[in-house]
Amino acid sequence: MKAAVVHAGGIIKYETVDDPIITDTRDAIIKVTATAICGSDLHIYRGSLPQVRPMVMGHEFMGIVEETGTGVNNLKRGDRVVVPFPIACGHCFFCAHELPGHCESSNPEHYGPEGGLLKQKGGALFGYTDLYGGYDGGQAQYVRVPYADYGPRIVPENLTDEQVLFLTDIFPTGYTGVDWGEVSGGETVLIFGAGPVGIMAAKSAWLRGAARVLNVDTIPYRLEKARETANSETVLWEDDGQNVIDHIRSITNNRGADVCIDAVGFEPERTVWDRIKATVNFEKGSPKVLEACMSAVRRGGIVSVLGVYVTNFDNFPIGQFFDKGITLRGGQAPAQKHIDKLMKYVSEGKIKLDDIITHRLPLSQVEHAYKIFRNKEDNCVKVVLDPTR
Prior knowledge:
By secondary structure, the protein is an alpha/beta fold. The chain folds into 2 domains: about 1-170 and about 335-385, Alpha-Beta Complex (Quinone Oxidoreductase, Chain A, domain 1), CATH 3.90.180; about 170-330, NAD(P)-binding Rossmann-like Domain (Rossmann fold). It has 12 helices and 18 strands. The strands form 4 sheets. Strands 3, 5, 6, 9, 10, 17 and 18 form a 7-stranded mixed beta sheet that branches. It is globular, with a radius of gyration of 20 Å.
């Protein structure tokens, strides 16, 4: 089959690889009909998350069931399914507590309680390095799905692939940030990032009854997309971002937002000074967006961290955290926890997901797709790939 394969150094190639096969009774083989590039894929593409051996990329995918193991009784050949991005067993302590990203069974080689830099990581993810299970992803014509009796959801016939594709990751992730923020009605929600996850967080904030929703970004066309698709207010990040903090305080009686959501992570747009500071401190990336969240949130408010952070940072503002009484939550979104409810929202027409798609390309053009997504060329916000071409 054909697939998008990452090589050492983050090089992506469109290559022929072996077809996946059933290796466990709970497996299923899915013929992929739609797949997408996620912002977190760029951490591998840039080489920030190392992957030495070749691996098929992608954790946002859906398709048609081709084959199932003998232990899978909820699916049959021909079912159209969408697959949540965490690989989870459904039975361990963490799965029982609706924390599939911490599954104790799916990542036996690198799992552990510590959450270290290169060891004792969380549960497995599709196409997301050997540290997270080493499973091939879904930017391919076919994919093996472990624990298929727990993860995949059958898609209603009245919904198209593009209407439900983002139930794999970015919609549950954006919704999780709002859920962690305990948004229940009347809140001001400030979202750093106007990419796919940031826009999904904005859409989710409205679903949960927020009074005001704002997206922040450094790139005007992304802010325009947030206004167009999520009806959010927008703020352009300038220089060190102090203008964002000043603005949110000016519209909240000098308090700050009730909830701040970091939908950027450790690789934001960085100045020369940011890069020098990271080099001096032997750090990868920058915590500047998280620091801005902690300044912009009100006392007693909540900061939800959806953007990926893979390293530690010195000078974390623990004093500010304590003085303001901030609640800080983060991690991989529990997609399996929310997906059925979110599927219902889509089916009932309460939310539209596919309006963020800016580029539809054949999988054979995956190298170009990654390039324009990473470099933010051609007003690229979200790329969907067709594995049949």
